[in-house]
Write a structure and sequence with these properties.
The protein is α/β, with parallel strands linked by helices. The protein folds into two domains: about 120 residues, 2-Layer Sandwich (Chitobiase, domain 2); about 325 residues, Alpha-Beta Barrel (TIM Barrel), CATH 3.20.20.80. The chain contains 17 helices and 19 strands. Strands 8-9-14-15-16-17-18-19 form an eight-stranded parallel beta barrel, surrounded by six helices. The protein has a seven-stranded mixed sheet with strand order 1-7-5-6-4-2-3, covered by helices on one side. It has a two-stranded antiparallel ribbon with strand order 10-11. Helix 1 runs parallel beside helix 2, helix 3 packs parallel to helix 5 and helix 7 crosses helix 10. The radius of gyration is 24 Å and the shape is elongated. It binds acetamide.
Amino acid sequence: MTSPPRTPLVPRPAKVRFKAGHFTLDADTCLRVTGGAEPAADLLRTLLAPATGLPLRPAADGPVVLALDPALTGLGDEGYGLTIGPHSLLLRARTLTGLLRGVQTIRQLLPVPALAASPQHDVPWTLPCADLTDVPRRPWRGAMLDVARHFQPLSYLLRYVDLLALHKINVFHLHLTDDQGWRMPVPAYPKLTEIGGHRSQSLIGPGGDRYDGTPHGGAYTRAELARLVDHAAARGITVLPEIEMPGHARAAVAAYPHLGNRPDRTLDVWTRWGVCDTTLGVHEEVFNFCRTVLEEVMDVFPSPYVHIGGDECPTTEWEQSPAARDRARGAGLAGPAALHAWFLDRVGAFLTRHGRRPVAWAETGTELPGGFTVMAWRDPAHALAAARRGHDVINSHHRATYLDYPRSAGPGEPPGQPGGVVGLRDVHRHDPVPETATPEAAARVLGTQAHLWTEYAATPARIEYLTFPRLCALADGAWSGPSTWDDFSSRMAGHSARLDALQVSRHP
Ligand code: ACM
């Protein structure tokens, strides 16, 4: 007997057994939905409607069952069970989030045209009979998009979230502010977006001194950000907001010079890429500013975590500023350089008092105050050092998770972040748990994340070219743990047809 065909799934489910036969969805198929599971039914209908037009009406005796069962503790916060027979489809989970993950698996089990954006005719909407039990290996599977270097409209963010959800990514990290642009509206500080949201031009390509001569700008409205949060939540994704401080803050200082170290100086929103010397000052007004901004952030974003940057913060301006040197002395610090941790500690404590968990980039893994969740990017050793110190860690080594690096060294590759290539195999090989981690340190690794800095990615087409298929490899490892290259690449060959149906750009 030949074994039943296996539908290639990305990420790979923890346990799956395909069986002979199939189940068919048609215009008469009804859904039986238990209390609390309605949002999962809504998502299934929303996602399948454009291509299939299936109404999937509710009915007490429907053959498709979406059920919440608190007794299914083995499925954890995001797991689900899916049993497909010739006459029924049963999706069960302990949590609504688990059902939302299962909905994405149902999408992948259907014929590829189910993912299309327009009506597909004459396709039998069949799913293979199968038993699946699926739980993620790590609770944090993130993707960061930098909308500060290049702004993208809300409509694009909604699509990006949809693409993340298909891959069971559960954190969408939105990098909202940087030296080159401020995208988050804060009513008490309107110039942040009015002035800080625009730069006069942008540097073209890595290195060199060529500018495009074209102004770039944009900012979200509060209503748009609220819509993004709702759209993501309906797909089981948390939007993690990031407001950069005390470095990468040139746009804020351009808008409000008194927040910097030299109130007499007016700066432009930065037009270069790289690390900028401009930092926030350390006077009390700056902390009032940070609190006001973060209050607005907490109002808009329900995420339990709030990211406050902390990376690449030159201390030159503090060293040159009598006020900052006084501040360091007054706080009993060894010198102005210690203001970095002191600054983050104060702001982190403010977030903690408001019931949120501060997140920051690790520069070494040992410099951040306790209570911070650490995003380690420079070196896997930093992830380990932070975990050993008792921090929760998101391990996203830039050599494996930075999607702004070129995909290959080939001649057709568009200009990317200088410094190396991050190929699909590099992402696939990345294991967020460092090899030498003790069980205690390993337990501190929440997961991993992909990062797309957008200095050289101005358009959705470029963003998608850089994101896919590399994000598929990251999502696969984060959800399922390591796989062999042969296993991943053979599933990816099938999954590519889905990316095509979704019109994900294959070309830069
Ligand atoms: C970073 O890449 N500056 C976090």
